[in-house]
């Protein structure tokens, strides 16, 4: 019985955390963590240790983050872009590979992090 109560309390706390985080921004704004997590399928390509071309999962991830960044207000977008670019630099991502993703994955429109 005590374990069941503890489990319910943990579940309730987790749901409260999700609701508070979700209600903080009703728009499609993206966070740095969400952007980095979404782009993980591209990491091996970006650092040059993976396939010669981005995978379908990488293309989908890049298209998703691109759209979310374009839907994010300019000040928040700059902060997220700076954070994602810093992470890329920290893991050894090659800038020319990022440009290739836009071309190969057919991501049109303005680059939100330029």
UniProtKB/TrEMBL annotation:
Molecular functions per Gene Ontology: lipid binding
Residues annotated as domain Bifunctional inhibitor/plant lipid transfer protein/seed storage helical: 21-111
One BP annotation, GO: lipid transport
Keywords: Disulfide bond, Signal
Matches recorded under SUPFAM superfamilies: Bifunctional inhibitor/lipid-transfer protein/seed storage 2S albumin
Signal peptide: 1-24
Similarity comment: Belongs to the plant LTP family.
Entry protein name: Bifunctional inhibitor/plant lipid transfer protein/seed storage helical domain-containing protein
Natural source organism: Carpinus fangiana
Source taxonomy: Eukaryota, Viridiplantae, Streptophyta, Embryophyta, Tracheophyta
């Amino acid at each position: 019985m005590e374990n069941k109560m503890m489990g319910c309390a943990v579940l309730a706390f987790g749901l409260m955390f999700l609701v508070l985080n979700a209600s903080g921004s009703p728009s499609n704004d993206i966070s740095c963590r969400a952007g980095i997590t979404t782009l993980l399928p591209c990491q091996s390509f970006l650092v040059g240790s993976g396939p010669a071309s981005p995978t379908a999962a990488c293309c989908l991830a890049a298209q998703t983050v691109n759209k979310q960044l374009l839907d994010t207000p300019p000040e928040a977008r700059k902060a997220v872009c700076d954070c994602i670019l810093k992470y890329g630099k920290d893991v050894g991502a090659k800038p020319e590979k990022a440009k290739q993703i836009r071309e190969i994955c057919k991501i049109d429109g303005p680059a939100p992090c330029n």
